[in-house]
User: Which sequence fits this backbone?
DNA sequence: CGTATAGTCGACTGAAATGTTCAAGTATTG
DNA sequence: CAATACTTGAACATTTCAGTCGACTATACG
C-alpha cells in the first residue's frame, strides 16, 4: 500500500461528504470550495470511488454524491485503496521468484508492513472521523486487537 | 512518512550490505549486481545514507561502504527517513492552521497513522532482517485479524 | 419543452518524483 | 603512476500528481 497525498485528498473529501449528506446529495462543487480541492481532481477521485461502490451519484439538479454504505462501513483503507488503486507489486517481481540466494529477504518485512498498515487504516471508519471532536481515533486505535475474533489462528501471511 | 519503492530499494541494499560487511567494505557495484539495482541509483541512495550517518564510506581500492552503527541500531525507519528525506506529511500546510470550519479533521488521523507506521518501522532493525531464516517478522507481528474484510478481494498485496 | 444543474468521460497539461545513464572528478592502495 | 571505488552533478525517459478543458448525458423544474 502506498501512502501519498492523493489518498489524503480523497479521505478529506469523503469526510466532507459524510458530514453533509444528511441534507441530500452533496455536490463536488461544494466539496471543492470548502476543502480547496480542484473540482476536476475531485471528479477523477470520485469516479474511482464510485466504481468501487464507495459512493453513489445522483444526476441532475439537486444531485450530487452520497455514501453507498453507512458511515461505519466505509474505512479509510477502502478509500485509499480505491483511489490509489492499480498499484501493485510486491517487491519480488510477481509472486515467488524473489532471489535465489537471498530468497527476497525483504519480502516478509514488506508484506508484514502492508498488513499492519492496512489493519490500521481498516480500523478507522468515516464514522470515527466524523464523530470525533478531537483525538478519538487514537482511542479507537488502541482498542483494535485480536479479542474481537473467535480464535482463528489461520496462517494467512504468505500469499503475496 | 511516505511509503514508496524508493525506501524498499534502500532497505534491500542495506540488507545486502549488512550481510556482507563482515569481510570488509562492500562495494556498490557488488550490491548493484546482486540486487539488480542500478549503480547510479545506489550512489544516490547511499549518498543520502552517508549524510545521515547510517553508513560510512572507505575510498580507494578495497573500499566500499560499511554500516556506521551496529546492525541492531539501524532500523528500517532510519533507512526510509534517510532516503525519502523531505518527508513531511501533516496535511494542514505546516502545523496548526488547518481549516477554520472543520479544524482539519483528518489531522489526527494522519498524525496517528504516521506515528503507527513509524513505530512499526522503528521496531524492525537490520539485525532482525538479517537473522531471520524465514518468517520471523511475521511471527513478531502476530495475530491480528483481518476483520471484516472478506478474505480475498484481489488487492491484498499492496506494497509500496 | 427547454434550460439550468450536476455527474461522466476523455484528453491534455505542467510539475514533480522515479529510476537510469553518462561524465568528470577525488582519495587511496600498491 | 595506475587501478579501484567513492563523490558529485547533469541529463534523461517514464510515471504519477494535480489541475484544466471541453463535450456529453441525465434529470428536475418552470
Assistant:
Amino acid at each position: 500500500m502506498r501512502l501519498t497525498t492523493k489518498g489524503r485528498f480523497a479521505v478529506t473529501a469523503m469526510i466532507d461528504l459524510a458530514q453533509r449528506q444528511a441534507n441530500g446529495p452533496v455536490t463536488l462543487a461544494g466539496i471543492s470550495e470548502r476543502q480547496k480541492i480542484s473540482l476536476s481532481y475531485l471528479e477523477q477521485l470520485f469516479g474511482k470511488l464510485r466504481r468501487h461502490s464507495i459512493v453513489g451519484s445522483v444526476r441532475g439538479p439537486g444531485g450530487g454524491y452520497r455514501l453507498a454504505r453507512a458511515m461505519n462501513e466505509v474505512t479509510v483503507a477502502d478509500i485509499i485503496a480505491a483511489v490509489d488503486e492499480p498499484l501493485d507489486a510486491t517487491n519480488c517481481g510477481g509472486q515467488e521468484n524473489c532471489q535465489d540466494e537471498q530468497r527476497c529477504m525483504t519480502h516478509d518485512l514488506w508484506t508484514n508492513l502492508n498488513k499492519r498498515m492496512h489493519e490500521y487504516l481498516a480500523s478507522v471508519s468515516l464514522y470515527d472521523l466524523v464523530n470525533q471532536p478531537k483525538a478519538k481515533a487514537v482511542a479507537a486505535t488502541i482498542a483494535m486487537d485480536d479479542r474481537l475474533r473467535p480464535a482463528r489462528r489461520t496462517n494467512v501471511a504468505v500469499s503475496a
Summary: The mean pLDDT of chain A is 75. Chain A touches chain B through 62 residues (CB under 8 Å). The longest strand of chain A covers residues 55-58.
